[in-house]
Every structure is written in structure tokens, then in C-alpha cells.
Design a protein that fits this description.
The chain has about 280 residues and is an alpha/beta fold. It is about 40% helix and about 20% strand. It has helices spanning about 15-30, 40-50, 70-80, 105-140, 160-180, 225-235, 245-255, and strands spanning about 10, 30-35, 55-60, 85-90, 145-150, 185-195, 205, 210-215, 220, 225, 265-270.
Length: about 280
């Protein structure tokens, strides 16, 4: 039997990048997955890929920062699969600037995406998880559920990212708090902090040319100068950025039964570079 057979996993930002790899990996090991993306196309593509491989998945499209998103996300899982076993708070992006040039909009956009959205999702999930845990306890069964929050080595501070670094540090505080609040319900709450993982957000720039992605109507500059990427390779003990599939592997470790006695921890997935 697959390790996640019958489990229900919710993964935000899973239409592309790291989230996509997480969704595919959890599905490959038996989980039924609620896939989320800002756009319907990428979300439905991942759902189709999971189904074509013999798995089960549904999409919940929309921004994690929308006031009604948490309710829709949890309802999608309950209506389609009857419960919740794994929540991966992965959705995110960067919108960088030095603090004296950072607008309130930039600040709140990143805080809301990386910190407020996970808070709302976990708050909304609580009645479902609590009811299931109490029913299982009454039956004498022990069932572990998993929450994996995504952080970054930028949580230790990174110039030009006051908003992102603050959000990624905050999610670590939430992780440790939730591990203490939800331990009585047999919920393991952990975090993965990434270093440089190759995604559309961290792609190499060609010369000085800026690249942008459209996020909720905003054109956000993305990418890293090639020279900076090369410098990062020299600093990294493994000598290269990580792949989305490797990033997904770190999340997977916190979702399988082997981590049932691990909670409140932060795993740095950075090729040997970075601490939080």
C-alpha cells in the first residue's frame, strides 16, 4: 500500500513550480489532492495529470488572499473527499524593494499571501480536523494529520525583502504555535524553509532585461541576475540551485508516517546553504 493511500491533501499554489511538484508527489503516493492556482488553466492541467496517472484530484481556483478563499478551499476538500489529512501552505511570490521605497501595497500583498492566508486556511480547517480527531479518539484510533508551512532562508533576513522576510519569519512562529495548539488532535505542524529553488520566480535574467509575471492584475518583476546565481552556486555546498521536485521531497518527508513524532520543526532545503 502507498504511504498516503486515502489521505486528502490540500496544496495552495500547486498549479506551477514547487506546489505543482508537491501535488504530483503526494498524489503519486496515494493522496487525493485539492489543487489550487490563481488561474484555472494551470490548476486543471495538474488535476488532469494526476488523473491520467491513476490518481484523484480536484481544483479550487482563486487567490489565497481572497476573503472567501479559505472557506471555498476547505469546502472543496470536504465536499469531494469527506475530510482533511494534509495541508501544505505553499502559495507565494516576491515583490521586492528596499524599505524606504516599499509601498503599503507591496507590504500587505506579501504579508497577506504568505502569512494571513495560511492563518485563515488553518482557522477554517480547525472544526473539520477537531471533529474528526475527537471521533477517532472515541473509537480508540490514532490518526496523524499533517500541516506543512513553506518558509525561506530569507526568514533570517535578506536585503530588499523586508516584506517577504518578515512574512517567512512569521510563518515559522505560526508553525511552532500551531504544533502546540494542535498536538492534542494528533496534528504534526512543521515548516520547510527553501534556499534557491529553480522556478519562474527565480529564473536567470538575460543581461539587464526584466521579466514580469501577472499576479492579480499586478505586473511583478521576477528573476535573478545571472551573476548572482553563479555567486550563489559558489557559496552553496552542493554547488547548484534545487529543482522543484527536490523541493517537493522535503515537504513529502513531513507528510509520511515516518514523521508522526516530529512537530514544530523547520527543515532547511537549501543544498547546505542557509539557516533560519
Amino acid at each position: 500500500m502507498k504511504k498516503l493511500e486515502g489521505k486528502v491533501a490540500l496544496v495552495t499554489g500547486s498549479g506551477r513550480g514547487i506546489g505543482r511538484s508537491v501535488a504530483l508527489k503526494l498524489a503519486a503516493d496515494g493522496a487525493r489532492v485539492v489543487v489550487n492556482d490563481l488561474d484555472a488553466g494551470p490548476a486543471e492541467e495538474v488535476v488532469a495529470q494526476i488523473r491520467e496517472a491513476g490518481g484523484d484530484a480536484v481544483a479550487c481556483v482563486g487567490s489565497v488572499t481572497a476573503v472567501d478563499f479559505a472557506d471555498r478551499f476547505i469546502k472543496t476538500a470536504v465536499d469531494n473527499y469527506g475530510g482533511i489529512d494534509i495541508i501544505v501552505n505553499n502559495a507565494g511570490y516576491t515583490w521586492d524593494n528596499v524599505i524606504q521605497k516599499m509601498s503599503d501595497e507591496q507590504w500587505y500583498a506579501i504579508i497577506d499571501c504568505h502569512l494571513t492566508a495560511p492563518f485563515r486556511i488553518l482557522r477554517t480547517a480547525y472544526p473539520v480536523i477537531s471533529a474528526a480527531a475527537k471521533a477517532e479518539a472515541a473509537e480508540g484510533r490514532v490518526v496523524h494529520r499533517k500541516v506543512v508551512n513553506i518558509s525561506s532562508i530569507a526568514a533570517a533576513g535578506n536585503a530588499g525583502q523586508a516584506n517577504y522576510s518578515t512574512a517567512k519569519a512569521g510563518i515559522l512562529g505560526m508553525t511552532k504555535t500551531m504544533s502546540k495548539e494542535w498536538g492534542r488532535h494528533k496534528v504534526n505542524v512543521n515548516a520547510v524553509a527553501y534556499g534557491h529553488i529553480e522556478t519562474r520566480m527565480t529564473q536567470a535574467l538575460a543581461g539587464d532585461a526584466s521579466k514580469t509575471v501577472n499576479i492579480e492584475g499586478r505586473e511583478i518583476k521576477v528573476g535573478i541576475q545571472a551573476a548572482a546565481i553563479e555567486a550563489g552556486k559558489q557559496m552553496c555546498p552542493l554547488g547548484r540551485p534545487g529543482t522543484p521536485d527536490e523541493a517537493a521531497g522535503a515537504v513529502y518527508l513531513f507528510c509520511i508516517p515516518e514523521s508522526d513524532y516530529v512537530s514544530g520543526q523547520v527543515l532547511v532545503c537549501g543544498g547546505g546553504l542557509g539557516t533560519v
